[in-house]
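Sanity check

After download, print the first record. It should look like this:
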Amino acid sequence: MAGGRERVAQLLKQLHRASCICPAHSHTYSPGTEHPALGKTDYAFEMAVSSIRFGEGVTKEVGMDLKNLGVKNVCLMTDKNLCQLPPVKAVLDSLTTNGVNFQIYDNVRVEPTDQSFMDAIEFAKKGEFDSYVAVGGGSVIDTCKTANLYASSPESDFLDYVNAPIGKGKPVRVTLKPLIAVPTTAGTGSETTGVAIFDYKELKVKTGIASRAIKPYLGIIDPLHTLHMPERVVANTGFDVLCHALESYTALPYNKRSPCPSNPVNRPAYQGSNPISDVWAIHALRIVAKYLKRAIKNPEDREARANMHLASAFAGIGFGNAGVHLCHGMSYPISGLVKKYKAKDYHVDHSLVERVTKLSPRPQNEEELSGLFEASMKLY
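Expected structure tokens:
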């Protein structure tokens, strides 16, 4: 067993050296050259996390937050399905009660594409907004991050910030407007991360934009919103949390990643596993092992659904700083082609790729991770 784990760890290192990259989650091609005085691998890691507020009914505070910021023109982004559901109504009630001026963009595409991103960017540019609110799952939040970025950098070409090798992977040097994310699913953790994923239709692959600069100003985690999720959506998004946590914990350590950036702005958001991201990943795994089955089986189990909502954010903090690896990398060529799958009882387009993964824990934590991994795998 130990020999097998060592072999997997060796393979991960070999793949990294061979630049076998996932265009959405890898930074092998990040701009900048290695630091001549510091060697080929990095020597430091950096944590960047959105502020998080958690609690049942906390969505009612969104309007107060925006009023406290003194903003005058808010862009509310969501999709047409969510426009008819309680989470968006709760946000609208809060904005109206607090006298916040806003415009709604409800044309977000589930599983966004480069074209759907550009449509949202155009809306944001025309609106000249001074703040943003995203209400939805990862697709909505990622679309809103991207619209905020390019509206704040109107002279930039779309591919300027897209991860290399598809895009130019330029570092973000502009200041973005405050974005409040209100997640309605318990899976992506997008409310905590500086990553936005989309389908690049020309090449039929997934890629993304990754920068600490695009992370939300605040994530509003309201467990009441997860009560509206159908059983299969709970299961599918729950396995996303599982993969995020396992992959970030077993990612190549930050001090083995190369090249070492010549400037801190070139240090990637996904910088490798590190002592702080490990804490969040491990705790997310414990929550998943305890609560995912309960959340799937009983939609009225508020404790289970609340904890899975929190686990999604915890895993987001972990992978948003450490990164993910082979599972996600292997899924993108497949999910870039899957367009017609619809989760049961969830009548919107939503790709699903099953990830069956054999992972190798890092040697210094083998016993602990083995227990967590085995507990998590019982969910299958």
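If your output differs, re-run the checksum step. Summary of this record's structure: The longest strand covers residues 131-136.
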